[in-house]
Design brief:
- The model has no long low-confidence stretch (mean pLDDT 90).
- The termini are far apart.
- Strand 7 (147-151), helix 6 and strand 8 (178-182) form a beta-alpha-beta unit.
- The strands form two sheets. The protein has a six-stranded mixed β-sheet, with helices on both faces. Strands 2-1-4-5 form a four-stranded antiparallel β-sheet, covered by helices on one side.
- The chain contains nine helices and ten strands.
- By secondary structure, the protein is α/β, with parallel strands linked by helices.
- Helix 3 runs antiparallel to helix 4.
- Helices cover 37% and strands 26% of the residues.
- The longest helix is centred in the last third of the chain and has 14 residues, at 159-172.
- 35% of the residues are buried.
- It has a single domain (4-234), classed as P-loop containing nucleotide triphosphate hydrolases (Rossmann fold).
């Protein structure tokens, strides 16, 4: 049984159809890249899977269940924008998640704070955007969830820090779960992907294993992405 099953998903904002009759099946045990131009529907898809957007048509099941409290309990979602209160300290945010989510592992989260060199006593309002992203990623990956939905998790950190974050994520990732990782930084991130989904104009342009893409085209995922969407723009 697929961990995520999507059938005939459609979502519009006014007259603009951001997801167009999408069908998709995703298995556990994989890190899956979700890539596409701005406005391609990546964030919308993640919000729907996280149960934050209900105004859509189609059928979605996570671990065999329709979206609702049961699926929210097994999904750990990282939004693109920070949502933590400025007055909180790192350690307080960890305590908050520990109280709120039964599957949260406080020890793992504190270990990640150390790996990211974040001071548990520091207030969020004094942290840079990159530091806040590290904290939010710590909270999301601190859960022992079945599904991780990450929306641009490393967009605000410098290139030198991205490798540290990706290596830490791989170390903490539970291989029995699955991760859907939306990003525009394909060249920096593709090394951790098992599969990749090219999403454009509300439709899936390509969904394949990363090794198959490289073998078929003789190019990196980033290079294939640029060719696919250059053709789409020029057509």
């Amino acid at each position: 049984m697929s961990m995520i099953s999507i059938e005939n998903l459609e979502k519009s904002y006014g007259s603009y159809k951001v997801l167009n009759n999408m069908s998709l099946s995703l298995e556990s045990g994989q890190i899956i890249g979700l890539v596409g131009p701005n406005g391609s529907g990546k964030t919308t898809l993640l919000k729907i899977l996280a149960g934050l957007t209900s105004d859509y048509s189609g059928t979605i099941r996570i671990d065999g269940k329709g979206l609702g409290p049961e699926t929210k309990a097994v999904v750990s979602y990282l939004p693109e924008k920070t949502y933590l209160s400025d007055w909180m300290r790192c350690e307080g945010a960890v305590d908050y998640f520990n109280d709120f989510y039964p599957d949260f592992d406080r020890n793992k989260a504190m270990e990640m704070l150390s790996q990211f060199r974040l001071d548990p006593k520091q207030k969020i309002k004094t942290m840079s955007k990159g530091m806040q992203e590290k904290l939010q990623l710590t909270l999301v990956m601190g859960r022992n969830a079945s599904v991780y939905l990450l929306d641009e998790p490393i967009g605000g950190v410098d290139p030198a820090t991205r490798s540290l974050i990706l290596d830490t994520m791989l170390k903490q990732y539970n291989e029995s779960s699955m991760m859907l990782f939306a990003t525009h930084l394909i060249a920096d991130v593709e090394r951790i992907f098992d599969r990749v989904i090219f999403l454009g104009f509300g439709e899936i342009k390509l969904h394949e294993e990363v090794d198959v893409i490289r073998a078929k085209y003789g190019k990196s995922v980033d290079e294939v992405f640029r060719e696919v969407f250059a053709c789409s723009v020029n057509s």
